[in-house]
């Protein structure tokens, strides 16, 4: 029934509007339907020296899949890659990484014996200044934080404002290798000492979904507790391993405990020392990174963890950038279905 432009339905006058909306008796025109809000995506980029080139591949795959990070929290090499991405210089960083050779890497290291580390870091600073000089963290189009550790106190420092280059340098200042960096009155060093994969920082900066790239997830370091270890019994252990070896007729003896075929040697106790200072430092860094990473990630796990297969990549093999970038791509592609699912589940109405 129509009357003067008003439709009567169930005895209630309803006014029809041009856009199809209606106004009931005594009511107001409803507003537009609430639109779903895209969740803020945070990316936590972990430390791991040369293995950090895989961050480039991870970011490339995420962006190619339509996943644009809103927040970047980086530690050590993760801070360097994250800063370049936030400043729109990821392409330049990728091209630079591909030009590195063993000789050029050595040429970038200005060794000295008078400082707090083996490398002054001035050549690397000039390299960063070339592309990032003048950039300030608070002016970046993406929310960014570099994680560092304060010398002396052990405070975890989130660098969220100020000069971008100095923040990155402070975050990768590995003790004993690079000199600490003074930022706003504090002497800072590598953030991997306190938070190797800064999921907590990304979440605190407002991320609804946190994706982390853990450069140590594929490491073979999985230490446990060896109880009641002593000097006695080493010969007995080797003898037991030898007795456990089995051989088929006409074949070399197999060593199941050592995973190789070899003649049965006489039991002996290894008396040689570590291989050298570089080997010891790398092992110590790997163990420290693994233990701290596992502890921090257990306390505040990410929504998605990307673990590139980097066990065979040396900490200082920066010349293997192309290989490392591809490993980052592969690991991220494997996780894309889960990433899309979690982001879709996090969509909420405004």
From TrEMBL:
Span of domain PNPLA: 43-203
Sequence motif DGA/G, location on chain: 190-192
Domain of life of the source: Bacteria
Annotated region (Disordered), positions in chain: 21-40
Alphabetical keyword list: Hydrolase, Lipid degradation, Lipid metabolism
Record-annotated active site: 76, 190
Gene3D superfamilies hit by this protein: Cytosolic phospholipase A2 catalytic domain
Coiled coil (residue ranges): none
Residue numbers covered by motif GXSXG: 74-78
PANTHER family: NEUROPATHY TARGET ESTERASE/SWISS CHEESE D.MELANOGASTER, NTE FAMILY PROTEIN RSSA
Protein name according to UniProt: NTE family protein
């Amino acid at each position: 029934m129509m009357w003067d432009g008003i439709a009567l339905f169930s005895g209630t006058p309803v006014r029809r509007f041009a856009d199809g909306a209606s106004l009931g008796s005594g009511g107001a025109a409803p507003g537009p339907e609430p639109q779903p809000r895209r969740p803020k995506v945070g990316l936590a980029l972990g430390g791991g020296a040369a293995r950090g080139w895989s961050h480039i591949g991870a970011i490339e795959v995420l962006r190619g899949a339509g996943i644009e990070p809103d927040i970047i929290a980086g530690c050590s090499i993760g801070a360097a890659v994250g800063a370049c991405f936030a400043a729109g210089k990821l392409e330049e960083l990728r091209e630079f990484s591909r030009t590195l050779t063993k000789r050029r890497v050595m040429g970038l290291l200005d060794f000295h014996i008078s400082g707090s580390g083996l490398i002054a870091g001035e050549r690397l600073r000039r390299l960063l200044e070339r592309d990032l000089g003048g950039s300030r963290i608070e002016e970046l189009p993406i929310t960014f934080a570099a994680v560092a550790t304060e010398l002396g106190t052990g405070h975890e420092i989130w660098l969220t404002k100020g000069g971008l280059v100095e923040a990155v340098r402070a975050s990768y200042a590995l003790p004993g290798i690079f000199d600490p960096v003074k930022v706003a009155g504090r002497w800072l060093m590598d953030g991997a000492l306190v938070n190797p994969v800064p999921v907590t920082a990304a979440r605190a900066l407002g991320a609804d979904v946190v994706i982390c790239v853990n450069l140590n997830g594929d490491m073979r370091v999985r230490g446990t507790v060896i109880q009641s270890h002593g000097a006695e019994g080493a010969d007995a252990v080797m003898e037991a391993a030898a007795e456990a070896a089995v051989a088929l007729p006409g074949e070399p003896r197999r060593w199941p405990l050592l995973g190789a075929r070899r003649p049965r040697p006489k039991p002996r106790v290894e008396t040689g020392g570590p291989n050298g200072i570089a080997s010891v430092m790398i092992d110590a860094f790997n163990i420290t990174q693994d233990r701290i990473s596992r502890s921090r990630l257990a306390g505040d796990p990410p929504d998605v963890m990307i673990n590139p297969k980097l066990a065979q990549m040396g900490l200082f093999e920066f010349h293997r950038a192309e290989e490392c970038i591809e490993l980052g791509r592969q690991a991220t592609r494997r996780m894309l279905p889960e990433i899309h699912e979690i982001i879709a589940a996090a969509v909420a109405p405004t």
